[in-house]
Amino acid sequence: MQLIINDRLYLEQTQLAHAAPLFQQIDKSRTHLSEFLPWVPSIASEEDMCTYLLKSIQLIENGLEASFNIFLDGKLQGRIGLHHINMPNRSAAIGYWLGKDGVGKGLILQSCIQLMAYGFNNLKLNRIEIKAALSNFRSQAIPEKLGFKKEGILRQAEFLNGKFIDLQLYALLKEEWDTQ
């Protein structure tokens, strides 16, 4: 499945065939990604990437995730997805990352808009969350630009680089999306 954003930018559903370019993107952006993402050290090889993607595909098949790779001009830039899909409560959380070369081009903002439309309209979600480290101002700017509401701070909610960090919790409801 593809979600077309414009003639240059699209999201393509997670597939094993993307393992090599995903690993290359992570490997060349390791320092950049490790600043805020705890999973980066666990992807040390293309085989690790395959293992991760197989788990992701299983989550998609079980309706617990809707994840995509971000492509600009046919080149893989990163990933985005609706994670922790909870259909009884019609909620999910958006997670995203970009390789260092994709930063600052508006890719995540545009990808989030497309993914939110998919979540609210196709999956019939009522609530979408985004969590961002308190010191990750670039990531916090995304939900703020998209009209998400700050709901609070999740204290010591993530173990990153040897210490616990706080996360800012943002959420947007379907009714708020409909009025934007």
TrEMBL record:
Keyword line: Transferase
UniProt cross-references to SUPFAM superfamilies, sorted A to Z: Acyl-CoA N-acyltransferases (Nat)
Classification via PANTHER family: RIBOSOMAL-PROTEIN-SERINE ACETYLTRANSFERASE
Keyword hit for Ubl conjugation: no
Coiled coil: none
Location of the N-acetyltransferase domain: 8-149
Top-rank lineage group of the source organism: Bacteria
One GO cellular component term: cytoplasm
InterPro entries, per database record: Acyl_CoA_acyltransferase, GNAT_dom, Ribosomal_N-acetyltransferase
Name this protein carries in UniProt: GNAT family N-acetyltransferase
GO MF terms, alphabetically ordered: protein N-terminal-serine acetyltransferase activity; protein-N-terminal-alanine acetyltransferase activity
